[in-house]
Records
---
Amino acid sequence: MKIRLMIVISILALLTAGCSQAAMDSYEKDPITNFAWEIINSNIENLESNPAVKIIDSKITRLELLETFDALADNPIQVYALEYSLLPKDLSKVVMAGGMSYDGEGWLTETASMGSPLLVITHRGDEAELMGIIWTGEVTGKGGMEKEIRDLLERKAQHEGED
């Protein structure tokens, strides 16, 4: 089952690479892709909170399973690399803050001062859950990906304890 799921996710990631949001809306998305689009759409919403900014297109350029951790929680935890691009109507209207970057064609990339997002996901039966996001810049220094995931799980447990 686990291998079959990973194959399906890999195929979907290949199919979605370079697809625009409009193309993505035309067929059923898997949970991992849904989580990726939630993050992308949140970023678009944040950028468009400036009335001068309008994002006219968006695409996932990479959604790839990087690693699976079987012993950190009750269920396996998977970490996915997420890379995407956003096309503003007028790049000059975007405030380039926090390590933001763009390519030669005017597409904003996912890169920030903390690096690129990594989706931390677990599965409970057939249900996938986005545990949170860690950043590539964080995992290269202070003890690696496993430490960042442990910290994320600890923060999540504390937050759930407050509710």
---
Amino acid sequence: MRVALEPIVTTDFYQPEEWRLARSAARTNRTSIYSWKTSGRANWLERGYSCVDCLGLVELPQGLPDEVPMPNDGPA
């Protein structure tokens, strides 16, 4: 699935169980894999694959910080 991570980049989104596919794409494209983490209403991207609190995986350019803040969910 394609997703837009404003203002960074448009990228592919992988389900956590597709980590092998994401890793292969990152190697081919010379990019990094980030885990889209979520806890409560907080969201952030964390470099690498971690299945704990992981919504999915995204492929981002190399050279970004280890953690990238994302907008938090609004009130329920």
---
Amino acid sequence: MARRSTICTVFGAALALFALGLPQPAAAGPWVQEPGEAYLKLSGGYFAANGVYDLEGNLDEDPRYEYSHWDVRLYSDIGIVPHLSFGFSVPFRQARNQVDRTEYIKTGPGNLDLFVKSGASFGKCAAAGRAGVKVPLYSEGVGSNPNDGPVSSGSTGRERYMPVLGDGSVDLSLLASFGCSLHPFPGWFDVAVGPQFRLDGFGDGLEYAGSFGAYVWPERLALKARVGGIQNLASSPSMPTKSYVQVSGGAIIDIVDRVALEATAAWIPWGEFVTRGWSASLGVSYSGPLWSNPFEGE
């Protein structure tokens, strides 16, 4: 147990940043935007770690460092042609590790997520397929040896504890989703599952999520809950690879027509090679037309 605690301390700076790459649910789930329609969201978020899970899932609740970050994220999902939408998500963040009284801070863009989604609605329900790619917009990721720091040099001091902005992997993902409106009850649910193919020696995984939401104040306030995560499927990848479960809850407050405030809080109750911690975000979203639908009436 002492050895595992030491390992957690040594590469804790690398582990902390894996929390930054947790996938966020697509706002519309399996419902695809109509041509010219869009969902746009600008949000700010905060994450604070209070423990580290090692490669075996053992928790160190008192690592040597303290990790946190702030970020600003832009998300979009825009209908292009019937049954097909395109979107992206990109954060800009400031990450911080504090070791004793010394702070190590790095600021910059994180991972750019690009995706296309295709699907159809039938009655109260909808189904869709989503193909995505994640591309790092930074130069430094984690090293192949979990005993090393985030730049894999094995050095001590500044390089070992300087936070990275992500693990540096290029990921390809395929996600199938299904959801239904619960009308006349003012709620909805959706589920999603699919493989995640990771390059650069990281282990492939299975991504999954399930969510439920309901309006508690008609056309004004909705509450939502979600459980999701990624399970590493590789038994011995050459790069240390994360697994985790994340639970979250939030609210959607409709301010004016098509504009809403969205708040979310999340927690990581279990993981492997990932930090345990909580996060919170607050954003403004717009759902509506950007241009007229050229296919309307066809």
